[in-house]
Amino acid sequence: SLAPSFDEQHVPARTARAESTVGLVEIADVSKSYGGTRVLRDVSLTVAPGEVLALIGPSGSGKSTLLRTINHLETVDSGSVTVDGQYIGYERRGDRLHELPEKDVLERRTQIGIVFQNFNLFPHLTAIGNVVAAPIALRRASKTEARAQGLALLDRVGLADKADHYPRQLSGGQQQRVAIARALALAPKVLLFDEPTSALDPELVGEVLDVIRGLARDGTTLLIVTHEIGFAREVADRVAFLEHGEILEEGPPAQVLLNPRHPRTQDFLSKVL
Ligand code: ADP
Ligand code: MG
Fold first, then answer.
1. Rounded distance, CA 204 to CA 108, Å?
2. Could you tell me where the beta strands, DSSP code E, fall in the chain?
3. Where is this region: Disordered (predicted)?
């Protein structure tokens, strides 16, 4: 691979692979350290358009960090991450990468929807207010237009009747469904889920999984970090197992989850199943 040189000292060295992208999300040889600790080690992972990839692995293995590199909430020390052939935080000029200004990063980030474990809704906004905030701010959609689209999205997650409720008036499962509607509001190319059901009471998990199931069926490109192994087996086209910042194995759910090759995968599955 080409190793481009950099004008700007603060831009980390990385390989030049964006042009040969086949995946919608293309993670190539990504490494990342915090202090002296390497939390991602030469991670390569591709999500094809329309594919559902489940990322599993023990706590602290680097799953959230990896997700956060995709929308440039984290920078990488080496390697590259592109979405639809484009870096979120950088622009290529010749064989060099230049850091983009914040407003361009925000615009590019709209291609990626992300749903967190703890919903992260704006507490002072209603359900519909949460869903329309970004379209109004970033797309300059009119309030009427944004509200109509927002209601359609809330309907899609089964919450049309809760549009004017505040997060504190909603259950955890309902809040997470609002968060999914919000993540869909800018029509992202890919949706990232970071343990979307881990903070939920068990009886509320199903309603959130149902919504994600529907997205998978509709052909939405999904990257899902989850401990719901049965769900991963059902909806994922591919499963990747991450441990200590390394992808130890990946493949179809039937292989990785039912017949894992790596002893570490077997060990992990024996603990969570
Ligand atoms: P996972 O999501 O698989 O539980 P994380 O990506 O959250 O793992 O964390 C991977 C490792 O990186 C952990 O050891 C964690 O403590 C560490 N880590 C995560 N974020 C930071 C940070 N901002 N600063 C320092 N260490 C971090
Ligand atoms: Mg995590």
1. 33
2. 25-34, 37-47, 52-56, 78-83, 90-93, 96-99, 112-115, 190-194, 221-225, 238-243, 246-251
3. 1-15
CB neighbourhood size of 3 (10 A): 10
Query: Among 209, 212, 192, 190, which Cα is nearest to 200's?
Result: 209
Of 90, 107, 111, 113, the residue nearest 17 (C-alpha):
90
> pTM for this structure?
0.91
* Residue that the structure tokens 């350290």 belong to: 33
| Ligand showing the shortest atom-to-Cα distance for residue 57 | 1
Ligand 1 atom with least separation from CA of 242 = 3
Q: Whose CA is nearest to atom 14 of ligand 1?
A: 60
Token match 């990626």: residue? Answer: 112
Tokens 């209601």 belong to which residue? Answer: 151
Q: What is the pLDDT of residues 92-103, one digit of tens each?
A: 888 888 999 999
Ligand 1 mean position to 126 CA, how many Å?
32
Predicted ipTM of the assembly: 0.98
Task: Quick: pLDDT tens for 8-63.
Answer: 334 443 334 444 447 999 999 999 999 999 999 999 999 999 999 999 999 999 99
